[in-house]
Specification:
seven-stranded mixed sheet, 46% helix, elongated, four-stranded antiparallel sheet, alpha+beta
């Protein structure tokens, strides 16, 4: 089992939009907040500065990749202090509904950017994203073994310049790869990734228990059966799980079932009674009560309007309450 790999699998992206920018100094761009999404930038030539509230200012070099995982508004400027109008107030050349070209600046030194934003549909992805720092900066300098990034960036830059048939699809797929690879790079190199839920996934015993719950949400899990599956005593397992994950094991089991239910409700089309059976509930009524306790609405209401922000945040609210 690969619990961490499975967590990355839940980063199924949708709503990708992107823009290639041809910029000349002095220039500045104010990027608006993207609720529930992640923004990435690839600097293919030139230099610039990234300014994200609450994080230190970063200078970007050619070949650098940065993620702003929590969708915060931020600025990209040729030099600190440069005026930065909102990017959506500037004239764009529209290539398609999801791809635009921007030309902006004062005629000086040039820089080229490929920028994009993506959203995540699976509720479980939001927990992984929340564990990430405010900025992930993958630098071109000293990257060494990260040849994958150089090749991906070169291909993305070529597709953005030429826009051959199918180019939009290629760039969208490459954006998915860039985001996941950047997160993998951060997990592999930053000590912060060894703590909290991400740290729990990498723990040999607790990570395996989490993977078992993910694989088999329908099983009649108890604290004793989970502890026994990873050769731990009930008390030691309960204490370690809560310490690493931040919530009791059985609360995690119930909430994970609701993650799966949310995903199936919007994609599968199964009847509520069928979902109850597939998730190990003995009756539709028991499943509906558990679902409403976590989500705050009935399964039918969510099926009718699953994109409502309340439904997407309800499970995380339940997690926060469990930690207190």
């Amino acid at each position: 089992m690969d619990p961490l790999g499975e967590a990355l699998h839940f980063l199924r992206m949708s709503g990708t939009s992107y823009c290639t920018s041809e910029l000349t100094a002095p220039w500045g761009l104010q990027l608006p907040e993207v609720k529930g999404g992640l923004t990435f930038h690839v600097l293919t030539s030139g230099r610039c500065w990234l300014e994200v509230p609450g994080s230190r200012r970063r200078q970007l070099e050619p070949g650098d990749l940065v993620l702003v995982p929590h969708g915060e508004g931020h600025r990209l400027v040729s030099k600190p202090g440069t005026r930065a109008p909102r990017i959506d107030d500037l004239p764009h050349g529209r290539v398609s509904d999801r791809y635009k070209i921007l030309r902006h600046g004062g005629g000086g030194e040039s820089a080229h950017l490929v920028c994009g934003s993506v959203r995540f549909d699976h509720p479980a992805a939001h927990r992984l994203i929340r564990a990430l720092p405010k900025v992930i900066h993958v630098k071109a300098a000293g990257r060494g073994e990260m040849d994958w990034l150089d090749g991906t960036l070169r291909l993305m830059a070529a597709e953005a310049r030429e826009l051959r048939p199918g180019g939009e699809t290629v760039i969208t797929r490459l954006a998915d790869i860039l985001v996941i690879q950047a997160i993998r790079s951060w997990i592999a190199t930053d000590e912060a990734a060894r703590t909290g839920w991400l740290g729990a996934l990498q723990d040999p015993q607790i990570g395996r228990a989490i993977a078992l719950v993910h694989h088999h949400p329908e099983r009649d899990w108890t604290l004793s059966s989970l502890a026994g599956s990873v050769a731990m005593s009930r008390s030691a397992f309960a204490a370690r799980f809560t310490e690493l994950v931040g919530e009791p094991a059985m609360h995690y089991v119930a909430r994970w079932r609701m993650h799966v239910a949310l995903d199936w409700l919007k994609e599968d089309g199964a009847a509520v009674g069928e979902l109850a059976g597939r998730l190990g509930y003995r009756s539709e009524a028991a499943f509906s009560r558990a679902f409403k306790r976590f989500i705050g609405a009935s399964p039918g209401a969510v099926r009718r309007d699953w994109r409502h922000p309340h439904f997407l945040s309800a499970l995380e609210t339940a997690t926060s309450e469990a930690r207190r």
